[in-house]
Specification:
Elements (H helix, E strand, L loop, with lengths): L7 H20 L5 H4 E4 L3 E7 L2 E2 L6 E4 L5 E7 L3 E11 L5 E12 L2 H7 L3 H17 L4 H6 L1 H16 L4 E8 L3 E4 L29 H29 L6 H12 L2 H7 L1 E8 L4 E7 L5 E4 L8 E6 H9 L4 H6 L3 E5 L1 H4 L2 H8 L1
Parallel strand pairs: 10-13
Antiparallel strand pairs: 1-4, 2-3, 2-5, 6-7, 7-8, 7-9, 10-11, 11-12, 13-14
Family: Belongs to the band 7/mec-2 family.
Keywords: Membrane, Transmembrane, Transmembrane helix
Pfam family, one: SCP2
Length: 353
Amino acid sequence: KTESTQTCFDCICTSFVKFFVFLFFLVTFPISGFFCLKIAHQYERIIIYRLGRLIPIKGPGVVLVLPCIDHWKKVDMRTKAFNVPPSKLCTSDGCIISIGAIVHFSIQDPRLMSLSVQNMNHSIRDASQGCMMNLLCKKTYNDIKTKRQGLSYDLQVDINQSAKEWGLAVSRVELSDITLIMAPQNKTPAFMPMYGAPPPPETGDAFTGSGVDNFGGIAQFATQLFAQVANAQSQQANDAEPPTSSTMDNLLRVLKTAVNEELVQEVDTLYQFNITGIQDGNFFADLRTGSGVVGLGVCSESPDVTFSLSMSTLQKIIAGSVTPYNAYIGGQLHMDGDTDKAMKLEKVVKDIK
C-alpha cells in the first residue's frame, strides 16, 4: 500500500538509486559485508527506512542494510519492565497517599510502534502514570490497600487501551507499597453536615408503633439539635471577640520554645503567617538554619509558604483541636507556596504539643 502511493517518477528514481548502491555493495564486497550485513537474533527485529520509506520488518537472521540510503534500528521483542515513579494523589475519602507501580510490556508490532511513537519508553511511562492517577483517585484508601490485585488488573486494562495504538502490549502491572501522607478528615453525618448532630434513634415512625416513645425520641433529637445550634452561635460570638494584646506574644513564646535544631533539619522551610480578622498582624518562622528564628513582622526573604488565617484558627491548630489539613479543607486556612513544605506544618504542630 505504501509503495502504490509512489508516482512513476519516484519509482524510477528509487530503482535507479537502489541499483547503483547495490552495485557498489557487490564491487566492494567482502569489505562492504562487514558494514552492510546485520544479524538479528530470534528475539530481535530490524526496522529499515529506505530513502525515507518504511520497508517490511526484517529478521531474525542475516539482514542486508544498503549503505547511504538505509536508516535502520534494531528492536528487542522481549518483555521489559519499568517503574512508574511514586506519585501523590488524593483518594475519594480525602486521603493523601504516595504510590507507584511496576509495568511489564513488550513490542507486538514493530512497524506500528515505529510509525506511531517517537520515544517508546517515555510515552508508555507517562500513559501508565496518567492511568494510575485517574483510576486510584476514584477509590478510597481502604479499597486501594485491600484490593490491590484487582486494581492492578484494572490498571493493566486501562494502559493497554493506549499502548495497543502504539504496537505495544502490557502483560502485567504491580502496584507498589502505599505511603500514607495524610489521613482522611473526619466526616460528619450526611443528614446534618454543619453541626454534626447524632442521628435520631431508629425506633420507627413517630406516629405508629410505640407512639409516645418514638415521639419522645424525636423530641430529644430536636433538643440536642437546638442546643448544638446555640453552642455554634456562641462559639462564633466568642471568635468575634478581639483577643487580648498579649495573645500574639504568648503564641510566639510557645513557638520559640518548640523550635530546635532537630526540627529545623527535618522541616527546612521558611513560613510566613498573616493573621487576618479583627486583630491582624504578621509573624514568620525561619526553620532553615541553626536553631530557627521566630519573629514578628514580615520576613526579609521570600518565604517558601505563606499562610493566611484568623487568630482563633491559629489557636485551635496549636491547641490541637483542628489539624492544618482540616482547616485548609474547611476554608479557614489559606496557603500560597510549596505544597510539600506546607504539609510539614503538621510536624511543627506535633512538636508544639
